[in-house]
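Take the subject:
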Amino acid sequence: MLHLTEDDVRRLLPMRDAVAAVRGSFEALAGGTAVNQPRRRLVVPATGSVLHQLAGWTGGYYGAKIYSTNVRHGAMHFHVLLYDARTAAPLALIDANALGQIRTGAATGVATDLLAPATVKSVALIGSGFQSWTQLEAVLTVRPGIRDVRVYSRKAENRDGFAARATESFGVAVQAVESAETAVRGADVVITCTFAKDPVFEDAWLSAHAHVNAAGSNQAGRREVPPETVERTALIAVDSLEQARIEAGDLLLVKPAEAWPQWPLAELGTLLAKPDFVRPDGVTLFKSLGLGVQDIAAAALVYERAR
């Protein structure tokens, strides 16, 4: 049984390949050749400790990502257990902090490639934390013509540092701005990746053709997208309807899941499976939650390159 480290994952899982692997997992889900098990959480009373578990099967592999968190102690520990789907033999224990970061960005890359305008010149990024880096990297990967990125987060030192590092690493002008409005107005793609409980931008700031990737929240009581945007969007894509009914606060805080058929809502895999799919006019939204099957697809690629 292999033990693969964070450094192994970073070396073996470049973003372009991660986008392809995650796209494949969405297509497999839509085609019935993959299974995703929604996240479960075990909360230890009075401690702040939480154990999170996601599982999935795709291709010749199945397994689970397990991670433990404790906000009071700044603890976040991620691991993927990967097994042979035919024999159930254990194959690898993979340190998965970077893997989760990369595959979360890759899912946004898949959605952006399908739902964003064909020509993207400007990107707004709200949030400058750990996950924001690969969100931007993935969008730049699938839309290489981008020349203008504006990043906003509440602390000036964080957004300034992020902008400087990203400009150097990605070779694109990344500007730290002083308000979410300045970031969002005129942007072709808007990425939200925050710990916010309430919307982080106003609907009126969006351009008429904007694509929004909402990647920060996977809890029913939190949201980043204003309800006006959810109600008027031309198309809402989710990574999993089953999981969205449990975790998608951006949607659940607007309407209960039983009322969602009123919206133009579909799983991303279903849209990818349509050979004649055409992006609708207007604003589009991808509500990202993060799936176990995405973790397994990414872990399988890392394992195959490492063995």
Summary: The first strand starts at residue 2 and ends at 4. Residues 54 and 220 are 17 Å apart (CA to CA). The mean pLDDT is 97. The longest helix spans residues 97-115.
